Amino acid sequence: SRFWPTFKKAARQIPFSRDLVAAYYCATDRETPFRVRGILLAALGYFVLPIDMIPDMLVVVGFTDDIAVLTTAIALINRHIKDRHYDAADAALADHELPA
User: What subcellular locations does the record give (predicted)?
Assistant: First the structure.
């Protein structure tokens, strides 16, 4: 999965890291409705793809388009992100060494 390497690279620029990781777990949860999984997987796919509207190599603005897509997707399906997804996100964030 390209999610974690991309996430680690962008972690300092994402003000809602916990929500993003919870969205990842929601998208991979088979109990999540198919439509919701599709929305989240599309947004997460955009996040990990190396080619997008604003190149991620541009330090300050590189992830702004990714953040806009992810924020919109999470806002649309927020009620489907359950406590178990946040619990998994908290555990994952504690386990993964993120850049300072």
Answer: Endomembrane system
| Cβ pair 66, 46 in contact under 8 A | yes
d(CA 33, CA 76): 13
At 45, list the tokens: 């796919």
Question: pLDDT tens digits for 31-55?
Answer: 999 999 999 999 888 877 766 555 5
Helices (H), the chain: 3-10, 17-27, 34-48, 64-77, 83-95
Question: What DSSP line would sit under 16-30, residue for residue?
Answer: THHHHHHHHHHHT-T
* Confidence (pTM): 0.73
Structure token digits, residue 27:
């998208």
pLDDT for 10 equals 66
Domain ranges of the chain: 3-95
Quote the pLDDT of residue 100: 40
Q: How far is it between the farthest Cα atoms of the chain?
A: 37
